[in-house]
Amino acid sequence: MRCVGILRLSLVVWTASALGACASWGVLPSTVETTESPFKSYQSAEDAYNQVTPFVTTVKELKARGFNPYTTPNIKVLNYLDLVPRFLPQQSMRQEDLDPAVQACLTVRDRCTGWLAEPSTSSKDRTGDVTLDVLGFERETTSTGWKASVLLLIQDSVVVYKLWSGTPTILEVKTEKKPLGPLQDLSGPAAAAVSGAIKP
Question: Which of 25, 103, 105, 182 could join 112 in a cystine, given CB atoms 3.0 to 4.6 angstroms apart?
């Protein structure tokens, strides 16, 4: 029985090695996530934001530029109850401390609406050593992309306040190491082979 267990373990290791060799001819997995919006890049979102002028730009003009929550995906419509915790996240903050336009908008309640767009694009690529990745010893993932947030306060069909934030360039590298490689995961087939190998 011990010989059978050792044979099973050898088969698992040989299979993992073969996968590593095959993977070296190809490409490691990658994932792209995009929040659909009228903005296809960080710069296009910023340009659209800069074209909005408080107390001048109307809802009709916003819709003409494609910024329409009723026809464009992923634009949220916020009521004044949604807006209060955004501008007053702490009890120590007072409404009197806010921009006068924000104060006025929140005061009229139902006549105050927020349009929020948070476009983003992120790409996750496995960028480490192919063989170490496939064998399960080390996995390196590089995340790149951008994200932005555009908030417009609208009162009586006119933009009265705008707020911008964002990250033009995202670059994050995450490395996971498993010294035992495929044997690290005790729920995997390699663990079953090891278990069979050590049985008398």
Answer: 105
